[in-house]
Amino acid sequence: MYILDEVSDKSLERVVVYLTHSEALELKDSLEDLLKKPLANHAHISDENFQKELTVCIYDVNNLKGFNKRSIDLIMNDS
Q: Which distant-in-sequence residues (6+ apart) come within 8 Å of 17 by Cβ?
């Protein structure tokens, strides 16, 4: 698991995520879809005002096609 703070461009070790019930359901549904569709490697979960966003990705270290350079660097080097 890798966590990237896109604002500071830094890898994080721990985060706390507070979700409403509907946001948790959206996350659950998004993860289920990602597991069924391997070519779709990420999903966005937004709050109701679209002010905050959680992006979740599923990756295979042996196939990082479709990920940008920053994501690949994080996955391969944890930096």
A: 54
Q: What's the burial of 42, exposed, middle or buried (CB within 10 Å: 0-12/13-18/19+)?
A: middle
Q: Where residue 28 falls among pLDDT bands split at 50, 70, 90?
A: very high
Q: CA-based diameter of the chain, in Å?
A: 37
Q: Count how many residues are written for the chain.
A: 79
pTM (2 decimals)? 0.83
Instruction: Report, as an integer, the average pLDDT of 20-35.
Output: 95
In this predicted structure, the answer to whether residue 43 has a pLDDT above a threshold of 90 is yes
CA–CA dist 55, 37 (Å, integer): 16
d(CA 79, CA 77): 5
